[in-house]
Amino acid sequence: MLTINYTIPDPELSVLGRSQCNSLKQNLVPKITGPNPELEVGLIIVSPMRRTIETALLAFGDLGIPFEAHAGWQENSTQPCDTGSPIPSLKSEFPQVNFDHVDPVYPDKTSPSGKKYFNTKQAIMARGQEVLRDLKQRKEKAIIVVSHSGFLRAGVTGRWYMNADYRVFDIADEDEGNVKIQEREWTAKEGGLGWSFEERVELGDGLVDEIEEPVLD
């Protein structure tokens, strides 16, 4: 029986998660290496959470591609499992990753200082546009982003992601001030591994408009 514990702070990958990373590696690495790769990847961006960093390193750590942590790609909720660790501890734990450009407020997403990371519809949709604009202005031909299903689905792409599955998008020109993306056909149904739901969802789906304050007796 699979049990889920949301109270573990910034958890590591489980044994199952590591196995799923191996499946990702076997599927995607051949597409981005060799003399005629389908994608010329020049950078790997990771959410600064342990499970995403471990996913990136397990799947792509042998490729010689630089890794950069980016707080904008963290998960939505404020539960312990979705709240990151202090950057100094991560730097010593994962020396392969560049943490120099992580927002200094990380991992705060509950105080006024961390307002841009609040678990609200307005903040998450704005953050989705911010990270897309960041990708658009970078010089690399292709970038791998290792992020989280909730944020990717509700804030960025409107698509489902099961653990370790992936999708490929091209970034288009802005439309009415919003950065648009177009998924490539070979992942456009159930993801590159075929593990994800095909249904699309509207950006912002399931997100709350405001943070609910606790009621004090």
From TrEMBL:
Note one Pfam family from the annotation: His_Phos_1
Record's protein name:
Phosphoglycerate mutase
InterPro entries membership:
His_Pase_superF_clade-1 (IPR013078), His_PPase_superfam (IPR029033), PGM_Phosphatase (IPR050275)
